[in-house]
Structures are given as C-alpha cells and as structure tokens.
Amino acid sequence: MNLPRTAEPLALYVHWPFCVSKCPYCDFNSHVRDSVDQDAWREALLADLAHEARLLPDHRLKSIFFGGGTPSLMEPSTVEAVIAAARHHWQASDDVEITLEANPNSAEASRFADLARAGVNRISLGLQSFDDNALAFLGRAHSADEGLAALAAAQAAVDRVSFDMIYALPGDEEDGWSRSLAGALGLGTEHLSLYQLTIEPGTRFASMVARREFEPLDVDRAATLFEVTQERTAAAGLPAYEISNHARAGAESRHNLAYWRYRDYAGIGPGAHGRRQGKRTVRHKKPENFLAAVERTGHGLVEEEALTREEAAREALVMGLRLAEGIEPPELADRLGVDRIVDEEKVERLIGHKLLERDGQRLRTTTAGRLLLDSILADIAV
Fold this sequence. Notes:
By secondary structure, the chain is of the alpha/beta class. The chain is built from 16 helices and 14 strands. Helix 1 (38-55) packs parallel to helix 2, helix 2 runs parallel beside helix 4 and helix 12 packs antiparallel against helix 13.
C-alpha cells in the first residue's frame, strides 16, 4: 500500500469484553460468560475492523491496543488474525506498538509466548498489589507470588512490559505504600501505571461504601501518597508523563499518547469508543447486542456523532493537561478551528498561584496543580 507523505498516524483500540470475574472497583465494559465462541468473535472483530478501515483510508498505523475485559483470554490465533487484518488495511509503521492487557493468572501467563509470536510486542499486566490481603480486597483472582511469576513470564516473552498498581486503599499509610513502590521500581520494567483507588458509580465498591462496609481513604492522605509517588518515581528515572503513568524516556505508551494528544483513533469491539475525522464513535456495549449488530449491518456501531469545534476543544484541553508536557493552546486552537482553547485571564491568575506554568507557548500544570486538575480545567475552559 503506497501512502501519501501526509498520511495521518492512527491508533487502533480493540476491546475484548470478557473476564473470569468482575472486580468490585471496575467500571469498564466487562462481562462474565460461561463460554465464548472464539471463531464467532474473531469474525465479528474482523468485520468491525474492516468497516472502520473503509472510513479511514490512507492512514499509517502507529499502535494497536487490546484492552478489556481481559484480552489475555483471547486465543492467540484471534489476536494474530486481528493484527494481520490491521496491517492489511493500513501500512504499519516499522516500530508499530502492539499492546495487550493481561491478568497474572498462571493459565493466562502461559499464553504470553504464543501472544508474542502472534505479534504482540508490549504487555500491560494487571498486578495491582504485592500484598495478598489487598488483592483479596480488590477481588483479584491471583496471588502476589502468581503476579511476580507472570511478570517474569511477560518479561521473557516481550521487550516492553508495563504493570498496573492500585494504591490509596482504605488504611493505606505512607510507609507501606513507599515499600510497595520501591518494590515495583526494582522489578526492571520501563513503564508503570499507578492509580489511586476511585469509587466509581455503579460498581460493587460503590454499593459497599453506601452500606458503610468500608470508608475510602481521606483526600489529604491520598494526596500525600500521590506526592510520594511523583517524587519516588522521578528519582528512579520513571517520572510521570501523565497523571497516573510513569515511564523511562522513550518508553511512554505511544497508543495512549494518541488519546491524550487528541489524535484520531479507531475503536472496535463491544463498548469501544473512537474518534474519527471529527466524529465520536461508540459500539454496542453488551456482547450479544454487538454480535447481532455486526451480523445485521457489518459493524458494531450504536452511536456516531459529529463533535462541534467547541466540544472537541474542551476534550482536547481535558486530555492534554493530563500530560506532563502540557499543551500549546495556539497550536491546538488552530488545529481544531477555534479562536481559543483557554481563558487567558484565568490562566494567568492560576500561574500566579503556581498551579499552572508556561514555557514559551506551552502550558502545563505544576505538581501542585495536578492535585487540582479537575478544578483547573473547569476554571480555564472557554
């Protein structure tokens, strides 16, 4: 496929909606089923992918991300077929990043080598904790020892490995989290995703909190743990390049950067969102509804809505200020066709309060500002 020099980079997100069990903190589109017809799902994903490719010609594929759910439950042959089809529809960059999210259960870890042979070159592992009691509280189906064994298997299978941890659990203290963080930083990965526990509406944790079965960590203690996280990761050479994501220089998730830098991405599979040429796309969430839609129409779309320039500008601001690099408001305004992205008078006031800082045309949050990002965004958006 010969592409013009101006071919736009494209990220592809593939959603696999199935899990062995539903974690109590999870608000992602995940479903537990007794059995999954891998052949039917492979064909549905390929059809959904072909539909998006027809609407996004002449793009250069920069990344593929298999998310979920639990994509490590996919048959490697299904993963391989989706990767091959994506490469057929679009010319892939030489360094195309192909990430698959995985759980550390031993049965899934045994597939890592096969997934690497299928084309996966980056594994994102959901370790979440090194403490068995914390893992039980989080509803995880693996032990701490299983997690470490799975990490070793991932590092043997692919060159690029990231893992997730959740902190600010009820009762978490600075000393305990510092020890866990030191352990995580000593495991030799290039990337860490470190998330504070958030009680999301509609989750089992939300119901438990409403019934007063446990109390979330208070805001001040959680803020202290966040500050410790920023300091320790930066000192170890994995500074935060996004609010919750830390990496060595050059090891950032290229796929997620496409979201945060507000570039186009195709999203396929149940519940997948996408951003295509000024439109927001959404797929059917329920797996059975998605399959029926693909059989009926050839794709899983349930919503396709044109964004106004103002909506796009607000989304780009929200995403961009999550990044340590920040944004260039004039460039972003020009790209999205609006007069301005931010209220400059309010920006200057927050710079005075040392919550924002400017470097030439680049605007970013300070360390203190990251703790108040939602309030800052609400204040400066136009």
